[in-house]
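$ fold --in a.seq
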Amino acid sequence: MIDQNTDGADSRYCLRIPLPESRGEQRADSEDEARRDEEKAVRCAQCGHAVTSPRERIDVQGMHQHTFFNPYGIIFEIGCFREAPGCGYAEPVSEEFSWFPGYSWKIAVCSACGSHLGWLYSAAGKESFHGLILDNLIQPE
């Protein structure tokens, strides 16, 4: 905002720049945003631990959601997520029976309770992603 200088010294203009909010207000806003993100988390159905966020949903092979079966005939409905910081991983990495050609996988578990949540897929020269079992997750409303 530009105001005319009214201190009587001369007729120059001065520029008023609004000061940023105090650090306390900025911190409170950041905490509120973090709390809202936490409330919107995709959670482990077993223990309620925050696993990922809806904004991490991605399409792989043209879709977010896929239905597959493993060699034992067990059917899994999975959703693809870029990041899932609430996951831990079990070794070893495998290339056998990968549902995404060219990708290897390892089991992804809840880092809080150890429940099987899905798989982490990775391939040389490509971004890794998580295929998480939708029945093992609680989606935010």
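$ fold --in b.seq
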Amino acid sequence: MISRAKQSGSMAKRSGPNNSAMTNHKMKSGNERDYQATMKKIDALMKKGEKNLTKKEAEEIRTLAMAAQAYEKSIYTIPAPKTLEGLIELKMYERRLKQKELARLLGIGEPKLSQIMSRKRKPDVAFLKAAHEHLGIDGNTLLEYA
């Protein structure tokens, strides 16, 4: 259910602390029951098929999806990684990289990356510099975790 709500790519605008001023095609408040009702409405509209939707229904799906996405972001938070390995794994996931591809991107050998990721080897300056330059990880963060 979450993936359909994320299709819109942006967050819904909220009006007030409980979203109570939202119209009938938006989530009425930020609770699980309204979220489920919103997802059912999205499902029903999507079952019609993209080609069978009116412009108004397509806009309604977008509005509902943005409201659902905003609710999901408020409920389902992913904590930031607390280790260098976790941070590197997150970057790998975001970029859909395998460890072999990451090693090539960073300009280091696969065995070295494997050892760093399994904490059998401490990251050296060259690795940290490559992670900063190629993965966009803040240098201070890298030094904190290293």
